[in-house]
Amino acid sequence: MARGLSSDLKTEFANQSIKPIILLTIGFATVVRLTNHYKDIVSDGNTFTSSGHLLNISSKSESSEINVANFQISLSAVDNTYVAAVLNNNVSNDEVTIDVGLLNGSDALIDTFNFDRGYIESFTINTQRATMSLSCTSHFSDFSRIGGRQTNTGSQQKFFSTDVGMEFAALTVTDILWGRK
Length: 181
What we know:
- The chain is α+β, with helices and mostly antiparallel strands.
- The chain has 2 domains: about 5-140, no CATH class; about 145-180, no CATH class.
- The protein has 4 helices and 9 strands; from the N terminus they run H-E-E-E-E-E-E-H-E-E-E-H-H.
- The chain has helices at about 5-15, 80-90, 155-160, 170, and strands at about 20-25, 30-35, 40-45, 45-50, 55, 70-75, 95-105, 110-125, 130-140.
- Strand 1 and strand 2 form a beta hairpin.
- The two termini are about 20 Å apart.
């Protein structure tokens, strides 16, 4: 289903005065919100700080296969706020959201859309260049997942050693249809 465009957005498209910006949210113990715009931006009651600490976000690739995509976020480590956040807390699996905001000709935010979302997998700090890189993985990964049970005899017998009820499960389900016929 196509997304309808607001009249404000249609007007700005007609005037060719749309300015895209990045709105980055990092779910540290104290949530960090950054933008690459020259001034602070307020979106949905949250203030995204324009500090120059957001250096780079790696490009995004897509495919028709479901996969766990990775992306990198580079932050300045000149101010030790972010360095302290990653060194003093367990940031693995903290959520990261990258939204693109659209500004009109007078720098008012008129619309946003989600560009990427994922979880912090690891981080590196480069003391020579005073940068910090967050390696993030897409929301298809789940670091806190607890392995579930499968419909086979081996999985069933882990919990019930004498039960052979799943011995013929593969014969009863031959095809699972996804979507419409």
